[in-house]
What does this fold into?
Amino acid sequence: MSDWSAMRRTSVACVVLCGAMALTAVELVDPTPARTATVAGPWVGSWEAAPAGVDPQYPIGFPGYSLRNLVHLSVGGTAVRIRLSNAYGTAPLHLGDATVAIAVAPNRAEALTGTMRPLTFGGSREPTIPIGAEAVSDPVTLPVRAGATLLISTYLPDPGPVTYHPDAQQRSYFTDSGDNTGDQSGIAFSRSYRRWYLVDGVDVRLPKARGVVVAFGDSIPDGYRSGTGTNRRWPDDLARQLVPLRYGVLNAGISGNRLLRAGTGPGHGSGPSALTRFERDVLSRPGVRTVIVLEGINDIGLQPHQTSARRIEGALRQLATLAHARHVRVIAGTLTPFGGSVDDLPGLNAVRVAVNTWIRRTHAFDGIVDFDRALRDPHRQSRLFAGYDSGDHLHPNDAGYQAMSDAVTLTSLLAPTA
It folds into this structure.
């Protein structure tokens, strides 16, 4: 563990244990608590899965199926509201029924006794979500703790493409035997998948919330190749550190995402471009104070290769401009090593190095996180350190993701935006 990591964990523990002294420590990090609370409001984002498209394995969706998505909250609260997306539907989406409950244990489809709640949308149990739209449920009184796992169950009576998030690193469940959304035991949900369907966000009511931090980018914020169901993505660890400070953390990563181009399939990226989706996946979320941007490695590594560092830099600068226009703080992450991976072609690492040099020198951002320095092999700086390599020489393992979280300094993350 790094010296900074140990110091940060000690300071976070002090926030919990030291009472009034801790409040002073927080004020030194963020000297405008009243303004922060006003920005956050009573509702803040606690979980997110950025919509990426329609699952090609299920082109007609799930007619007659019940889906039970398992989601891991960052911050807790006294009530919840659920966001469902029809961003990539080709027809209005008729929802037959929906419920929310607290899981009896992580990775289990069984609901904790007494926590099952019906979901309504504008008072309706069976809303229709227009093409390209998102529906936000009516508030549900359901006290939830930080780190809780929610079961969000939906029944779809009709055929039609269903918006999804691939590579969830989380096992969820489904059944094709009709409406089982109210099944507390979870017995009906005997089949599993590792994606998230329909659900793209959970907000919690937390009146004294300080705000939300969004991790925005590609497969590395998304936690690709981290342990399934273990919540070991680097934004998960960051969320655990921020709980005592009453900040939510949202993960807006999409595996294969690119800054400048929409994904077109395997080897060519996935999801809309970062520039296209920034408003939807970051700026529209309630309580957002800070965004950490880690994006651009797929522009370099995937076909067609982007070999102009200046174009990548220009896109990153545009994201910062969009965020600053909404008084959101922007932290830029340096691009991580990919030497030895399938994307390691002659000349491409030089583009990455050029972008990182610019990130370290520019004044376009409110701060940086040097993920490159945190993960690279000190003797072969184009490669991941072996102890942090998941095996594909591109994505970190759980220890690498932990090192990324440890590289984030709370002072730069939470300082006020001018």
